Amino acid sequence: MPLSREQKKDQVAWFERVLNDNEVVVVMKNSGLTVAEVSDLRNQMREAGGGVKVVKNRLAKIAIGDRPGSEVKELFTGPTVIAYSADPVTAPKVVVKWAKDHDNLEILGALMGETALDAPGVDSLSKMPSREEVLSQIVGSLTAPWTNVLGAVGAPAANLAGIVKTIAEKEDA
């Protein structure tokens, strides 16, 4: 069923919002995926904090326009599905992991900010730590010195208590 002009405008506006509100948009070829498989991918992406949508190529190309990284428009041929996330690593991680178990999904590339990526670039991005992992590493490295200081301050008291206990046990024996 063809889309009305108003529906097409709505889809272009939606895709522009996706491009503006998310750090990465992964473009994939949707050949041979069943509805159940796309739903499974969509559910896994939603759980991770992203989204998946089958898009019309012509409308996606209009939405991308002439923005930096617009060479990604060349990827929109044939049946196309996109995955997107605010975290630049979430969508690539989920998609690459999911594609390993589903041969029908072919990762074509991505648009990350103003940079167009090819399929190996998406794979490399999927191996990077997520924003939460980086933040936890930073917090861990900031709190580690305090943990060491507290351990060093508490150690002499613990050592002294152990020595007193040992002496008391020897006197009782």
From TrEMBL:
Q: Which GO terms describe its cellular component?
A: ribosome
Q: Which Pfam family, an example, fits this chain?
A: Ribosomal_L10
**Xref: Gene3D superfamilies:** 3.30.70.1730, 6.10.250.290
- InterPro entries cross-referenced by the UniProt entry: Ribosomal_uL10 (IPR001790), Ribosomal_uL10-like_sf (IPR043141), Ribosomal_uL10_bac (IPR022973), Ribosomal_uL10_bac_type (IPR047865)
Domain of life where this protein originates: Bacteria
Q: Which UniProt keywords apply?
A: Ribonucleoprotein, Ribosomal protein, RNA-binding, rRNA-binding
Respond yes or no to whether keyword Ribonucleoprotein is given for this record: yes
Recorded hits in PANTHER family, A to Z, give: 39S RIBOSOMAL PROTEIN L10, MITOCHONDRIAL
Q: Which HAMAP family match?
A: Ribosomal_uL10
Q: Which family does it belong to?
A: Belongs to the universal ribosomal protein uL10 family.
Subunit note: Part of the ribosomal stalk of the 50S ribosomal subunit. The N-terminus interacts with L11 and the large rRNA to form the base of the stalk. The C-terminus forms an elongated spine to which L12 dimers bind in a sequential fashion forming a multimeric L10(L12)X complex.
Describe the function of this protein.
Answer: Forms part of the ribosomal stalk, playing a central role in the interaction of the ribosome with GTP-bound translation factors.
- Name recorded for this polypeptide: Large ribosomal subunit protein uL10
